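Input for the complex:
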Amino acid sequence: MNVTSNRSLGTYSLYGVLIVCSILFLFPLYLAIINSLEDWYSIPVLVPDSFKLSNYSYATKLIDFWRYAGNSVILSGIAVVISSFTSGLVGYAFARIQAPGRGLLFMCVLSTMMLPAIVTQIPTYILLHKIGLINTFLPFLLWAIGGNAFFIFLYRQFFMGIPLELEESARIDGCSIFRTYWNIFLPISIPVVATVMILNFQGSWNDVTGPFMYLKQDQYPLATALSMIGYKANGSTQIIQQVSIAAGLMLIVPVLITFFLGQRYIVEGIVTTGIKG
Amino acid sequence: MRKAAVGTLAALTLALSACGSGGNNGNGGSATEAPSSSGASNSGGGEASQSAAPSSPQGTVTIRTNITEGELSKDQIAEFEAAHPNIKIEIETLDATKLSAELATDSAPDVIRLGGVFDLPSYVLRGIALDLTDRINNSSVIDAGDFAPVVDVFKFDGHTVGQGPIYGLPKDWSNDFAIFYNKKAFDAAGVPVPDPTKAMTWQEVMDLAKKLTIKDGNKTVQYGLAANEWGKTEPNFNNMLQYLLSANAQISNEDNTKVDFNIQPVKDYINMWVDAVKNNVGPNSLNNDQTSGGDLFLANKAAMIIDGYWYSGVIRGNADAQTHLDDYGMLPTPTAPGGTRVAPTGGATGAIINKSSKHPDEAWTFFEWFFGGKPADDRAKTGWGLPIFKSKMNLLPQETNFDKQVYNVLQDELQYSNQFLPVNPYLSGGGWGIFDKYVQPLYFGKSNIDEAVNGMTKDANVAVEEAVNSTK
Amino acid sequence: MKNKTRRTIAFYSMVSPWLVIFLCMSLFPLLYGLYLSFTNYYGFNMDRLSFTGLHNYKLVFTDSDSMKALVRTLVFSVINVPLSTAIAFVLALMLSGNIRGSGIFRTIFYLPSIVPVISTVLMWKLIFTGNGGVFNTILGWFGLSEVNWLGYDYATVSLIIMMSWGAGNGILIYLAGLKGIPRDLYEASSIDGAGLMSRFRKITVPLMTPVIFFNVIMGLIGSLQVYLQPILLSGNELLARPIEPNYMYAVHAFQQIFASQRYAYGMALLWVLFVVILLLSIIVFTTSKYWVYYETDQER
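Predicted:
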């Protein structure tokens, strides 16, 4: 009896905390939504006093919205499909295969994240220009094939926590190292794979600078286009904030949907049964 | 001034980047480069020039520019391309890094957008700008005799702005240090609006601002002064340069290789502002009011704002302001105490032609059309800035009482617009941050004025010395 | 021996995608970027660079900002990293259960990491602002006097509060980690009569250490490179200078590059930051064998 009432008390206070946090987290979204519905050039508000849904249609019409969205789909598609896969492969090698030079190479992987991108942006531009890859999607494909340091590190951490017996049993079955990864490690790592895919999609979908530096305007993804090309009425130099906000909100919708659908795989994807014992 | 209009709400958007517009042509810049020097010196006005012979695609030249889409609309481009079938215009968004990368690979745009006051001298020193003197003098579209004095801001002889060859043109400009007032706020404080035919001194502006600030207990219900549309009522480097120009004082030596902030006018300027900040005349770091100056001004919660003619466009376009447009008006650019009257521009955004452009003739055709042709008329009519031709001034809006008040004060201001901010090309944009670094602590009593000016001098000279070395 | 060769071949073929792309596409820019930090590169003089030796690096240690900013950044990170790590962990624990609506809550908690920084900052400004701000209003209820949240004394506190709010970035990764803990471990321990707290201490935390480790390293890298938040918290544009207590090291570097076109100097500043981050990461890595629980043997 006592236990149950304790538990329901616990559940209520948990809900209490969750709801308070939710309000704090939802507030910027609320601000964005109400301000996306205001009149053009009006002063930002805290309480809605207008309802201009037309801002959303202007957001798609004043710039080449759908073309940019299409580019976003291509670029983030490349990243999610290829880089999530190769990062796993590399991460697995760093986690589970002993080889000379492994520690040093892993530090190299990590150190690519320790240098702000600005240092290499101009040299990268020069390189891509020399080999004729500026203004093509090819560099993004190559970078995806190379995997992403953040995800390599993430995979490595997860794979290092998986019990050793797993490999031993695979070896007894005569699996090659690659087969062990593919047939045994990946299937039980669905939460991590889902996490990587979600974060990867979010990262590439929202990447502004990379595409800006190495692509030309009609190849920009939506995030780059929205932050580099402002919404302006014809002839005016003033950015129409209300329409920009509407566009910004449309930009995050796919990320939210992907997250909502994807998080189920993180939470329900445990197939750990059968590992132990 | 920084027109970007980064209102508070810019926050909500993703619009973060400085400027921009992008797009190279094909890989490695080879693409379409057939020789075609014709059509260059044709009149840019549009019509008739090349009506015959629809030129074949391989005769087409692509001219790239980072003039933004807001400044050059798709319709305008289509019009131009129809009149000049051999030229295609491509807009490209750029920031400083991408421009540097393109300069390093010799693939920068043909027509490069820049700020006249702060950027032009350094672009000339860097050897990026093409000398346009002869082309402008021989142009049939652009009448150099009709230029407003502000155009000289694109002349530079290596030492002095306003002298030597001309490298580009501004698209428009404003007397950026003038004052706009809101009579509603003056009435609330029971203070009469100053005489718009006379320029106040900056000290008088500050005193007036103090009188216009209204408190209700602890809460400020109305401020006297907003320093700009996007931020706090605090001094800044550009504004100081205007003060120094009026006071006839210099922080740079003759050839701009040394800087010294330790002069009385600089100290006076800073002291005056620190006093104003401490007196709460606007939102600032001390009272930590995060509402932006422009929002306060348009909401009748700030009586004055420091801004140029272009700001009349903001007022005209604001729904609330439209309901009492007659309450607004412009006052002349203030002077330093005892100084001369000057109404310089703080921006004069325009463009140059890239010295290493592969198609300078076609770039020029576009250039003269954009600065002297129909787009120039279009710009003047909107009232979002001042034209660079004297003869186009009457295209500015003059319908409402507000339009007329602003237009009249402007006529007076124009007589004082032939002097330019004493910008040091080696310091250019860096002055802003150095200034802020040493002035901010003064508000909080963490430093004193001598420490501040000496610190500025030291930091600025390091940056100047480096920049000088890099141009050798 | 034969086994060892086989493993080495397997290792290198599996990391080859990364290795090849790294050698072909990242190594040249890295070295070139390093070279530029030893020149007088100013953003436009690529065709006539001159080598200036250690000049820029000397400047890093002698200019009036960098070392102060570096210390400031380190102090900030020492507070920010553990705090954010802990908050994200606690939030993840709350969300890991299968309570009603957990999917919605998770999505909401994920929001801070996808809402652009700039709108986050706008919200916090409304909270920190002096004239009718949320925090000062609350202080007023308790009869306390108002505080300048973005002034000299409290600006860093405010920055840390704002950064903690955005700690949700790590939640997702913790969730994945928590779900990787086999449920039978908990079941076994509850049979042994272990309480909630001791299960948390003896099972959850140890098994989560690889993930905690990941978030600490990533937090460290991010925290030492922080620049956007301090800039926007003080000003409204990217070139605005933050108030002194929030003038972080990376802010300094970016200001040199973007406001003054001092590319070479800015790059030298960032290479020094790189070395600092690298050293700190190596320290954390070395200590990891004492507190991170791995199934496999670490290193040799």
